UniProtKB/TrEMBL annotation:
All residue ranges annotated as the FAD-binding PCMH-type domain in the record: 45-231
InterPro entries listed in its UniProt record: Cytok_DH_C_sf, FAD-bd_oxidored_4_C, FAD-bd_PCMH, FAD-bd_PCMH-like_sf, FAD-bd_PCMH_sub1, FAD-bd_PCMH_sub2, FAD-linked_Oxase-like_C, Oxid_FAD_bind_N
Cofactors (names): FAD
Protein name as catalogued: FAD-binding PCMH-type domain-containing protein
Provenance organism: Podospora bellae-mahoneyi
Region of interest: Disordered: 17-55
Keyword Oxidoreductase in annotation: yes
The keyword tRNA processing is annotated on this UniProt entry: no
SUPFAM superfamilies with a match to the protein in the record: FAD-binding/transporter-associated domain-like (SSF56176), FAD-linked oxidases, C-terminal domain (SSF55103)
Length: 534
């Protein structure tokens, strides 16, 4: 009854055409052309979406939040709901209403001189790139592997890109946030009316509040400043290959040292033979035939088959892709420094390609020949084409711990995690993002839908092993948010006590995204614990 009253109120706020009483329509188009809400790769526990509401203004968001409080109807917030492998637009709590912000798609400002934009949550990386291209601006944005996602949503989830500004959350500057009671807040220098430095200086005066709204349920971000880089005069993409699996240790040690010395500015992506085989099989049906019955990823691909295909294709054990950006005079010296350092890594092969702008001009992203990694800031959806949400498609789930920037420790974890994954008859695909002082080490598990029941067991086994090594995920699927949060064990879970206290204080009715990142109101947490025990 309360839900019906809320939906009637929502129709009065956003119009009946922007309320979906069933989650089968209204979402931005996703895999296989679907416009349904939910997780395109659902695991064995239900996280079914409920009805959906789609505001297109800040005032409408505020009214919806007030109505949700009035009728005590929780809402799960998504910017566009395209975080594949982490739950899509599905809620933690089964049948929660989806607050879908994709219609809030205005680019408020793009500033070429200072290299920033202010955007609403519905703005995609593709949309922002196309607007920069249309205006012929000398700017390169950072984009993730799949460009149809929200700039705001990806940043709030601490998503990763491939240019110098790849750690998106570090380049966020200023937010506008609807709070759980419907009030409106601006962070940083946005506290000043008509501030000229809101998207330029993130510190503000007094406590910094922006961090409270990353991976949380404390507010709804309706505007965000995001900073990126001026277009360079020259760009060099570099690929380093090594022949043996154990070469991962010296490869990573060299990469992270080059980054700390500011020779390499964007985070190298590391991938291995499995990724190369999948890419080759997609392009060439003859290679797909070599995988035979294992080509659908329902089971672990035997090592001897991987070795056979790798030998036929002449594949390295590991590839690291990264780039250099800047004036051509600087590029030449930096490139020589990179090549000199990798001479010390046994068997390393370095290839590179340089693009130079016309003298006196800057390179546009679209002037650079694109490759496997969007290091020039050109978004696409090509990587999404490998997947399908259908029952005979290819699905994936991500296990994503953060490790120290050590090749030795990464290799140790990789060997252990690979064995655990294979013991569950699944395949470990390395998707490692190497930063100067940490590595986001994604085990990108691709699987046939028939294998989904094994995903919970392998996830928990990986979590338990990482816990022994002192590692925690930076991001996780909705099915594992509570379990991941339970590993925040310092001082008997002080972090969880604090996040619950904040939730009780600012959202006493538990209206916003209950359970996100394991954050609950105290009463809901007790109820949840009771359910888990049963």
């Amino acid at each position: 009854m309360q839900l019906e009253k809320f939906l009637t109120a929502a129709e009065a706020i956003v119009g009946s055409e922007n309320v979906s009483r069933e989650p089968t329509s209204g979402a931005p188009e996703g895999l296989d052309g679907s416009v349904a809400y939910g997780d395109p790769f659902p695991l064995s526990r239900p996280h079914r979406p409920g009805p959906a509401v789609r505001p297109d203004t800040v005032d409408q968001v505020r009214e919806l939040v007030r109505a949700a409080n009035r009728f005590e109807v929780p809402m799960w917030t998504v910017s566009r709901g395209k975080n594949l492998g982490y739950g899509g637009s599905a809620p933690v709590v089964d049948r929660n209403v989806i607050l879908d912000l994709h219609r809030m798609n205005k680019i408020i400002e793009i500033n070429e001189e200072y290299a920033y934009a202010i955007v609403e949550p519905g703005v995609t990386f593709i949309q922002l790139y196309e607007e920069i291209k249309k205006r012929k601006l000398n700017l390169w944005i950072s984009v993730p592997a799949i460009g149809w996602g929200s700039v705001v949503g990806n940043t709030l989830e601490r998503g990763i890109g491939y240019t110098q500004d790849a750690a998106h959350y570090k380049h966020q500057c200023g937010m506008e946030v609807v709070l759980p009671d419907g009030d409106l807040l601006r962070t940083g220098m946005g506290v000043v009316e008509d501030s000229k430095v809101w998207p330029l200086y993130s510190g503000g005066f007094g406590p910094g509040l922006d961090g409270l709204f990353f991976q949380s349920n404390y507010g709804i971000v309706t505007k965000m400043g995001i900073q990126f880089s001026p277009a360079p005069e020259a760009y060099t993409r570099i690929l380093v290959e090594v022949p043996e699996e154990q070469d991962l240790a010296p490869l990573v040690g060299t990469l992270t040292d080059l980054m700390r010395r500011r020779i390499v500015a964007n985070p190298p992506q590391l991938y291995g033979r499995m990724t190369l085989i999948i890419g080759a099989a997609r392009r060439d049906p003859e290679i797909a035939k070599l995988l035979g019955e294992h080509g659908n990823f329902a089971r672990h691909i035997p090592h001897d088959l991987i070795s056979k295909v790798s030998s036929i294709l002449g594949l390295p054990a590991w590839c690291a892709g990264f780039a250099l950006y800047g004036p051509p005079e600087a590029q030449a010296g930096l490139l020589e420094a990179v090549k000199r350092r990798f001479k010390q890594v046994k068997g390393a092969k370095v290839t590179h390609e340089t693009f130079n702008a016309v003298p006196g001009e800057y390179l546009r992203s679209e002037d650079v020949t694109q490759d496997f990694l969007p290091q020039s800031g050109v978004p696409s959806i090509d990587h999404a084409l490998a997947f399908s949400s259908k029952e005979d498609g290819l699905w994936h789930n991500c296990y994503s711990p953060v490790l120290p920037p050590s090749g030795r420790e990464l290799y140790e974890w990789y060997v252990r995690a690979k064995k655990i994954t294979e013991d569950h008859d699944l395949n470990f695909l390395a998707d490692f993002h190497v930063f100067d002082r940490y590595i986001i080490s994604i085990n990108l598990i691709m699987f046939h839908p028939s294998a989904k029941a094994r995903l919970h067991d392998v996830q928990y086994a990986l979590m338990e092993d990482s816990k022994k090594l002192g590692y925690l995920e930076y991001r996780t699927h909705i099915s594992f948010m509570d379990a991941t949060a339970a590993n925040q064990t310092f001082n008997n879970g002080a972090f969880g006590r604090f996040t619950t206290m904040l939730k009780d204080t600012i959202d006493p009715n538990g209206i916003l995204s209950p359970g996100k990142q394991g954050i609950w109101n105290s009463t809901a947490k007790l109820e949840r614990l009771g359910l888990e025990e049963k």
